[in-house]
Amino acid sequence: MTLPETQTLYFEDVRVGMRETYSKHVKASDVVGFAEISGDRNPIHLSEHFAAKTPFGGRIAHGLYTASLISAVIGTRMPGPGAIYISQTLRFLAPVRIGDTVEATVEIVELVEKGRRGKLKCECRVGDTVVLEGEAEVKIPTRPIP
């Protein structure tokens, strides 16, 4: 599944329990590209020879590559353009391998009127396995006054 067209939800539009999901098939070129952008050239991500000797038995995607899929949901779908990240916690629970399909889901768990903030439950899965979980706080834009 590719990410649907961008949508903007304003503070007045969102409700506790709303969810959005983005699925991404992890390619070797994604991992190499993320290493280039981030500067993280840990051979566990780039060298099959090195990674084969680790407990993972092969190359794995960067944890923050997986976390970036959460950012994709927040920045394009919920709440979407205009949302401002305040904070993000992450717990990495299992490796993501090249060839996996990661499903990143964001759910609104709390809305705070003061400052127009939302607390979001964030989760990434590969199949039935939760590979990453965390919580984000975002500032949600208000509907423009006409």
TrEMBL record:
Pfam families xref list: MaoC_dehydratas (PF01575)
Q: Provide the GO biological process annotations.
A: fatty acid biosynthetic process
Record-linked Gene3D superfamilies: Hotdog Thioesterase (3.10.129.10)
Kindly state one GO CC term assigned in the UniProt record: fatty acid synthase complex
Stated EC number for the protein is: 4.2.1.119
First and last residue of the signal peptide: none
What is the main EC category here?
lyase
Can you name this protein?
(R)-specific enoyl-CoA hydratase
Keyword set includes Lyase = yes
A Gene Ontology molecular function term for this protein is:
3-hydroxyacyl-CoA dehydratase activity
Q: Where is the MaoC-like domain?
A: 22-117
Q: Which InterPro entries match?
A: Fatty_acid_synthase (IPR003965), HotDog_dom_sf (IPR029069), MaoC-like_dom (IPR002539), UPF0336/Enoyl-CoA_hydratase (IPR050965)
Keyword Protein biosynthesis tagged: no
Task: For this UniProt record, give its keywords in alphabetical order, as a comma-separated list.
Answer: Lyase
Q: List where this protein forms a coiled coil.
A: none
